Amino acid sequence: MNESNSPSNFIRDIINEDLARGTHTSVMTRFPPEPNGYLHIGHAKSICLNFGLARDYNGVCNLRFDDTNPAKEEVEYVDSIKEDVRWLGFDWEDREYFASNYFEQLYQYAVHLIEAGKAYVDSLSAEAIRDYRGTLTESGRNSPYRDRSVEENRNLFERMRAGEFPDGAHVLRAKIDMAAPNLSLRDPTIYRIRKIAHHRTGDQWCVYPLYDFAHGLSDSIEGVTHSICTLEFENNRALYDWFLDNLPVKNRPRQYEFARLNLTYTVLSKRKLLKLVQENIVEGWDDPRMPTLSGLRRRGYTPDAIRNFCDRIGVAKRDSTVDLALLEFSIREDLNDRAPRFMGVLNPLRVVIENYPEGREETLEAMNHPTDERFGTREVPFGKVLYIERDDFREDPPKKFFRLAPGREVRLRYAYFITCVDVVKDPDTGEVVELRCTYDPATRGGNAPDGRKVKSTIHWVAADHAIDAEVRLYDRLFTAPDPEAAGEGDFRVCLNPQSLETLTACKLEPGLGQLEKGTTVQFERMGYFCRDIRDDAPDHPVFNRTATLRDPWAKIDRQQKQATRATS
Ligand code: ATP
Ligand code: MG
């Protein structure tokens, strides 16, 4: 029985019943990616479900590559898929399978169907086959080749395998029922000729099984008990069962469908993600704006955050769309607990402390986490020249602006109170280039002994010790909640032009120089940032913004909703 803390769902109910009734004594699931692209957050839902069930029921989950289409599949994808599943925290042990391992067995199954009079070689063109198939309201017509003899079918199928015919000359079809209300039962194609080298079997084969034929039989060969797929395969279930009912299989798996993950502001389809890569709209499969696991990893997402997200969204039978804000919430929640705090100035403005002794330096103690003492403290250098965030100063502050302004006193985090006494401008442009300030030595550590208060605390970095860094501010890739609907098929029309802003003159606290690549920290007040695993170099640190501290889109969404309400 299931004794985990995982939330219940209809698939768990089915498994509980199967175990109680003795239909199965153990559970075997599988995660079956086609190696034709990188895994995305939708796949994570399927991975967490399949591996999670195996874990909770003391069963096993296989990793099976569904590699039946040699035209689109590559070893690069196989490798990335393994890396991503492992990174998410799941282990398939020695059960790494490929549908292509079963090609000989599958071929023999096809011969078995031919010999039972349940499959035939069709020589209609692909177009004619589509034509003969009929529609939802119109039954199909039998192919003129449907009544070929077993002998002729066996002979033609052998010659297809031997490479005697060009692509498309013949296919092998299951002989079921051209009038079946379920279109997937109208004599589906089960083998086709493709004279293309396969990433694993090379030139060994030139006939390849189709997904519907290969999938259920691969499940059966491995001994899978519960074959879980997404809702678009609901109609194919009858066919899944037909093959198992008509072949001498040892194991009888069952297919169950659940709702795929859809996310707002996101496209989740390998075909469309490939297009983003091929058209250089993003920099690659692991671009931090991509919803791929490699993109999320590079962005600074943690496996825990993704698994928590998958638990939260649950597993249902009806399609729905999850708000991207929920994924962002999951990473903020996780990083709030685990990310050490640092100070980093993204848009620096130089500050000179006029009354701070020339040449003097000191270090101040800073907390690495505001609530968790286990993170400890660190030493941060302070000096006469500092950088603060340009946005933290206004020469002419509006009403509710409480940060630095001429004549105003604020607290420098972990350091001193400072007061702005003068503003230096570029004589040509009028731009503020430096602030002259004074500090109160009695406020060391950030508190005034006389009890006086300041209205704001800002972060800073000492100029002499700052490291120069590039910081990439990532935002949503699309501006429309449903990019496909908004673009009427062309999602490029709603690309967010501000999805990446690169800042090249950032000043970071020196401790960040030692940070390992791929580590995510919080820059206080600015958000979570991950040291880039690809472009970072010792003399050129690069940080990717993982998430802002709050959801900047919440307000926009609220405004949009109010606007729609007002006009409707
Ligand atoms: P895509 O539509 O992105 O190309 P796919 O379904 O063709 O995905 P596969 O490699 O065949 O990709 O998927 C492997 C497994 O992941 C399948 O069991 C599939 O149902 C599941 N899966 C794919 N996309 C999602 C999703 N958005 N949500 C949940 N599960 C998904
Ligand atoms: Mg697929």
- Distinct bound molecules: adenosine-5'-triphosphate, magnesium ion
Number of strands: 27
What integer is the average pLDDT?
A: 95
Question: Level of helix content?
Answer: 25-40%
CATH domain topology of the largest domain: Rossmann fold
- The CATH architecture assignment of the largest domain turns out to be 3-Layer(aba) Sandwich
The helix count comes to 14
- CATH-defined superfamily of the largest domain: HUPs
Give the amount of beta strand, in percent: 15-25%
CATH class of the largest domain: Alpha Beta
* Lateral arrangement of strands in the main beta sheet: 12-25-26-27-23-24-13
Spatial shape? elongated
> Any idea what the radius of gyration is?
31 Å
Structural class: alpha/beta
Describe how the helices and strands are arranged:
Elements: H1 10-21, E1 28-31, H2 41-56, E2 60-65, H3 75-88, E3 96-98, H4 103-115, E4 119-122, H5 126-132, H6 150-161, E5 171-174, E6 189-193, E7 207-209, H7 211-222, E8 226-230, H8 237-245, E9 254-258, E10 261-263, H9 270-278, H10 293-299, H11 303-313, E11 320-322, H12 324-338, E12 341-342, E13 344-345, E14 348-353, E15 362-367, E16 377-382, E17 385-389, E18 409-412, E19 417-425, E20 432-440, E21 457-458, E22 460-462, E23 467-474, H13 483-486, E24 500-508, E25 520-523, E26 527-531, E27 542-547, H14 552-567
Parallel strand pairs: 1-2, 2-3, 8-9, 10-11, 12-25, 14-20, 18-21, 23-27
Antiparallel strand pairs: 4-5, 5-6, 6-7, 13-24, 14-17, 15-16, 17-22, 18-19, 19-20, 23-24, 25-26, 26-27
Helix pairs in contact: 2-11, 7-8, 11-12
The site of adenosine-5'-triphosphate has 15 residues, from helix 2, strand 8 and helix 9.
